[in-house]
Write a structure and sequence with these properties.
The chain has 230 residues and is mainly alpha-helical. 73% of the residues lie in helices and 0% in strands.
């Protein structure tokens, strides 16, 4: 009987291991497809001009069907911009989570945002020029700030040890809105239609985030009061 139970247990473990491997391979395939699509979208946009690139062209260049493309991106602009902003939201959340508790939450958030948006190693100058000179791409670029919200909310909630379903999400949504404001101002066209960045992006980001510091401080103080030992 004991041997039979152990056999059943091992069988269950084997099934779980196989399922985990299949899930891992499936996620890797999805990630590879996403990377292939955004790389193809940017390459074609730089070669032909974004207005001359169709979704079908991007899908063909990446070796997938247009239907598969639509499972990952809702427009060509979104795919092109994703080549520049890929994984940024996860990196921001990870950076906030990695900062020690001795670092003020407001500073951890601001530093993570500024670093990920202004790290020169993460920017393709030709791609940024393309994005800032095309209105539809500019709008898509600014809108990517919204992707920060959910990963950042999880990082803030973890840091606060918070079971409150609202605080972390409201703070993260506010941060995303502030980043959107800074980016929109950064790429705002002049009266003549020329896009000239209005100032250093780090300064614009920090200025937009500054009004949120009291709220982040207050949430952190409340968390410390709930858990004095933290």
């Amino acid at each position: 009987m004991r041997a039979r139970k152990l056999a059943y247990a091992h069988s269950g473990w084997d099934h779980e291991l196989v399922a985990a491997r299949r899930t891992g391979l499936r996620e890797q395939k999805k990630q590879a497809t996403r990377e292939g699509l955004r790389a193809a979208a940017l390459r074609l946009a730089l070669e032909c001009g974004p207005e001359n690139v169709r979704v079908d062209d991007i899908a063909a260049a990446a070796g997938v069907s247009p239907r598969t493309y639509n499972n990952y991106f809702s427009s060509r602009e979104q795919a092109i911009v994703a080549a520049v902003t890929a994984e940024r939201e996860a990196q921001i959340a990870a950076a906030v989570a990695a900062r020690p508790a001795s670092v003020r939450l407001a500073d951890a958030v601001a530093d993570a945002i500024v670093d990920q948006y202004t790290n020169p190693g993460q920017h393709n100058p030709a791609a940024l020029l393309l994005i800032t000179t095309r209105p539809a791409l500019r709008d898509a670029f600014v809108d990517t700030a919204g992707t920060i919200e959910h990963p950042l909310a999880a990082a803030i909630a973890e840091r606060l040890g918070d079971t409150d379903p609202y605080t972390a999400h409201v703070l993260a949504a506010s941060v995303a809105a502030a980043v959107r404001v800074a980016l929109r101002r950064w790429v705002q066209p002049t009266a003549g239609g020329l896009v000239v960045p209005t100032g250093p992006l780090p300064e614009l980001l920090r200025a937009a985030l500054a009004p949120l510091a009291p709220a982040l401080d207050a949430a952190e103080q409340q968390a410390q009061q709930r858990s004095p030992a933290r």
